[in-house]
Specification:
Shape: globular
Low-confidence stretches: none
Radius of gyration: 25 Å
Mean pLDDT: 95
Distance between the termini: 52 Å
Number of strands: 24
Largest sheet: 8 strands, parallel, barrel
């Protein structure tokens, strides 16, 4: 190994750790260290002695490399030869809680029984929600981790997780798990040691003797859960101090300015990679670095440290990629995929929260102008990265409508956010949505929304009205739901289906029956996968759930056939001549792809001359969604029926 600054003692220790490996495998590790050393040291710049920290981490990397299974080493080699594996059009994701996806009571082994269901949907990426050992309830849905190296007892063991990862890998499905970086549970061994008076572990957390410093920080800190856990600091008598708790009183923020914390989490990452995990969702990553006078989110050190973590992972387990859970504005979120000197060196994936918000906004307003402006100003991201796109996820929907974006299209941001909350809670006249208000803040008027995609699309209301002869309402609700997912599948990156959406699952009316869920209505859209509903969807393709299921499978198959949807190709929104139409263009070497979405319940026409301006002749294209030419009027304009999408390409 030739990295500058690497001491002889470190070289000797690495040689000792790897002595039992074949020569070719030792050479591979040395080459990776040479490749990623500079990124590692540069990323550790926030620490006083970055090279010394890098050497500590390198020893962890060597030990994990030595212990990595042969089939995972083979996967590493394959992924190095196919670095775009997660960017390809055939990649479709699925997200679920393991205990709600598997047959009841079967845990992680039961998830493996669902492989055929996933393959039917074209899934190549499975995100299982938090399953590492949390504290006893309440535990923020599993995000209060008490042990990073154990699986929840009700789901199984770490060996069960290894077996599941192996089975999924054999079926071409990559396993994604959550890694909570910002905090641990109060019951975690590090926190317990801090409470017991161990000064080393006390420095793993932000602890203050009185409210002086916390009060100074609080002046610029937003509240994440104003109803559940106001404020960002908690007094702990055992600790004899105030500890930083951004989310809940039982979740203690880690002090990432301490290099010991970095080394601990780097070791956890390598441990999980060696269990066969291929994607790590870096939870709450935006909050890692604290700086007085700021919101303590998105600080530059976050990106530096992520670069360092990624470099360590690339040395040991290059099959592992990172997904940033950063639900922030456009100008901030792109940094999690790498901008400037971090270009392509941080997370490989990031959530496109704005796309999700804008899809629901368009469906409520029947107007694409806000979405076109807001999505059109996203900076370009590295071509080696990809967005995670989704219509729903496990969380509530916060209406991230920027005031400046709203003003640009003559809207009042505060008013539009209020309209969306009223629309999707069913309070607005004419709405059929059945969402639930989450975390209402009377002081700001902020209201977030819970609810399944089908319930937000109005399917539950429509189905109840069929007794009154309102069958068209069901057709429209199904069309709205599929239109939303068509936008998501057509954006590029990895479209992720939230469990139950594929069979149009409605809100779980029994969400509050579990005591620890009673105060959190987000569990309404986290239902158990209903085997009877899945069977009904397969049995009756003409039913509402059958049409949704067939539509989702068709989207995956169609998407896989279109090179235009490779994530390296940027999606460009264009202003359509009709605000009732949302338009996206993808320019690929094989030719342009024009996606048009009628976001209204009435028929719309798009002028032929405008389509030609986007690089396609409407008389010489096909709609890739059905394989036929689009419906053209006598004057050459293209007609779109109720909530109809078209993906126009050259045949």
């Amino acid at each position: 190994m030739t990295p500058a600054g690497l001491t002889g003692s470190t070289r000797d220790e690495i040689a000792r750790l790897l002595a039992g490996l074949p020569a070719h495998r030792r050479t591979t590790f040395e080459l990776r260290v040479d490749r990623w050393w500079d990124d590692l040291v540069e990323g550790l710049a926030p620490y006083p002695e970055p090279t010394a920290v890098a050497e500590r981490v390198l020893l962890l990397a060597a030990a994990a490399y030595r212990d990595r299974d042969d089939d995972l080493h083979l996967l590493d080699e394959r992924r190095m030869l196919e670095p775009d594996w997660f960017q390809r059009p055939e990649m479709v994701g699925y997200a679920a809680y393991a205990e709600r996806f598997a047959p009841e009571g079967t845990g992680l082994p039961g998830v493996g029984e669902r492989v055929e269901h996933l393959r039917q949907l074209g899934v190549g990426y499975l995100h299982l929600m938090p399953l590492l050992q949390p504290r006893p309830a309440p535990n923020d849905g599993g995000y209060a981790v008490a042990d990073y190296r154990q699986v929840r007892a009700d789901l199984g063991t770490m060996e069960d997780l290894r077996a599941l990862a192996s089975r999924l890998r054999a079926e071409g499905i990559s396993l994604c798990l959550d890694l909570v970086l910002n905090h641990v549970a109060r019951e975690h061994a590090w926190a317990a040691a801090a409470r017991a008076g161990d000064e080393r572990y006390r420095r793993y957390f932000h602890v203050y003797p009185d409210r002086t410093v916390p009060d100074a920080y609080e002046r610029t800190l937003p509240e994440v859960f104003p109803d559940f856990a106001p404020g960002s600091f908690t007094r702990d008598d055992e600790l004899d101090g105030w500890v930083w708790t951004t989310f809940n009183t039982y979740q203690w923020d880690l002090a990432w300015d301490n290099p010991d914390v970095f080394c601990e989490l780097a070791d956890v990452i390598l441990f999980l990679a060696n269990q066969g995990v291929e994607v790590l969702r870096l939870d709450a990553i935006a909050f890692l670095w604290k700086r007085m006078g700021t919101p303590c989110q998105n600080e530059p050190e976050v990106h530096q440290l992520t670069q360092a973590l990624r470099a360590v992972a690339r040395m040991t387990a290059p099959a592992l990629i990172f997904k940033a859970e950063a639900i922030v504005g456009p100008n901030e979120v792109v940094h999690y995929l790498g901008q400037g000197r971090h270009h392509g060196k941080v997370s490989d994936l990031a959530y496109h929260n704005s796309l999700m918000v804008q899809v629901w906004s368009m469906l409520a307003s029947r107007d694409s102008r806000l979405a076109t402006h807001a999505l059109g100003r996203f900076p370009a991201v590295p071509t080696t990265t990809a967005w995670i796109t989704y219509l729903r996820c496990h969380d509530d929907i916060g209406w991230a409508i920027d005031d400046d974006d709203a003003r640009a299209v003559m809207l009042d941001g505060w008013g539009h956010r209020g309209f969306l909350s009223r629309w999707y809670s069913g309070e607005f006249e004419g709405s059929t949505a059945e969402g639930l208000v989450f975390q209402h803040n009377p002081a700001t008027g902020d209201m977030r929304i819970s609810g399944s995609a089908a319930s937000l699309a109005g399917l539950g209301t429509a189905l109840r009205r069929t007794d009154e002869g309102a069958v068209p309402a069901v057709d429209e609700a199904v069309a709205r739901l599929l239109l939303g997912y068509t936008v998501v599948f057509g954006w590029g990156g990895i479209p992720v289906v939230w469990s139950g959406d594929e069979v149009a699952a409605l809100n779980d009316e029994s969400w509050a029956a579990t005591p620890e869920h009673a105060a959190d209505n987000r569990w309404a859209h986290r239902p158990r996968l209903d085997d009877e509903l899945v069977a009904a969807a397969r049995r009756d393709p003409e039913s509402a759930v059958g049409r949704v299921y067939a539509g989702m499978r068709h989207l995956a198959l169609t998407r896989a056939s279109l090179p235009h949807l490779h994530a390296s190709v940027q999606a460009a929104v264009v202003a359509s001549p009709d605000p009732g139409i949302f338009a996206v263009v993808r320019r690929h070497p094989v030719g342009p792809m024009l996606m048009l979405y009628n976001i209204t319940e009435t028929g719309r026409e798009v002028p032929g001359w405008w389509i030609r301006e986007q690089g396609l002749n409407p008389a010489q294209v096909i709609d890739a969604l059905n394989g036929y030419p689009p419906h053209l009027a006598a004057d050459g304009s293209l007609y779109l029926s109720t909530y109809q999408p078209v993906w126009l390409v050259r045949p």
